[in-house]
Amino acid sequence: MKTKEFNNKKLKLYIDMKTSVVKDVLLVATFAGFAYLVVRNYKQRKKREEEALEFLHFQLF
């Protein structure tokens, strides 16, 4: 009887650890995705500003 209880506890711990790992991976993936979107938006905005300045420069000179 004790071995069965021990195995059940061991299995439960293993499943809890697996779900914990899955949660951690999803959390890291979420942060990485958010960081990617922020960086992409920043680069696009900088590129638009640079193109606008270049256009203005060519219009003036």
What does this structure look like?
The chain is mostly helical and 61 residues long. It has one domain. The model has no long low-confidence stretch (mean pLDDT 86).
Please state the overall shape, judged from the principal axes of the Cα atoms.
rod-shaped
Secondary-structure element pattern, one letter each: H
Percent helix range: over 70%
Instruction: Sketch the major β-sheet.
Output: none
Counted beta strands: 0
Class derived from helix and strand content? mainly alpha
What's the N-to-C terminus distance? 90 Å
Rg, Å, rounded = 26 Å
Number of helices: 1
Strand content: under 5%
Number of domains: 1
Average pLDDT across residues? 86
Unreliable stretches (pLDDT < 50, length at least 5) are: none
Question: How is the secondary structure organized here?
Answer:
Elements lengths: L1 H59 L1
Descriptive tags:
single chain; 61 residues; mainly alpha; 1 helix; 0% strand; rod-shaped
Describe the structure in brief:
The chain is mainly α. The chain is built from one helix and no strands.
